[in-house]
# Entry
Amino acid sequence: MDCKATVKIGNYSRGGQTRGNNQAQDHDMGAQEKYIPCGILDEDTGQLYLNFGSSYKTSDFIVDSLSLWWDRIPQPEKQQLDLIQIKVDNGPESSGVRTQFLNRMVEFTDQIGKSIQLLYFPPYHSKYNPIERCWGILEQHWNGALLSNVETMLAWAESMTWKGKPPIVHLSQEIYQKGISLTKKALEAIEMRLLRNPSLPKWDILIRPC
# Structure
């Protein structure tokens, strides 16, 4: 699971030769419309899920994207799961010390009734996260395309493939508030729910449902 760099909507060349009329802006003139892709790759099935957010990249946006992914999984597959391992980038919105992210992950674990293990990549190693290869395919796929509106952006995302499968794409219009954090007392209650690996307490966290 990881978020990609913000996608700016407009007639930008995106580093490649443009298709069609070959007319594009080669400088950012101050894009007014931007979207944040959050991707979840199911390594067992090869299915890629993309949620494009129109607000901010926050802990809430990331966990809401995870919830959308869970809603799309068929019930028989859910019943077979006991433990969900999530490989996470150690970014500021989803790190092992981000209070709101951990709070939402505990809530999500209780909601689905499954244990979740958060596995973080060390600094400067997020490129080894399998989802990064998906982002590379998406960049190649729409390189040179003029993503002049949100419909075009979504259409290009839906037409890419990963291991022969098109991604499941969603557009989120939810408005998120930045800078949400827990009080010390609330954090203490959350920490009681986290089973941190003694050797890697910030990078290997197990959460069991109540």
User: Anything to note?
Assistant: The radius of gyration is 18 Å. Helices lie at 59-72, 75-80, 99-112, 131-142, 150-159, 184-191. Strands lie at 2-3, 7-8, 34-41, 48-53, 83-88, 115-120, 168-172, 194-196, 204-207.
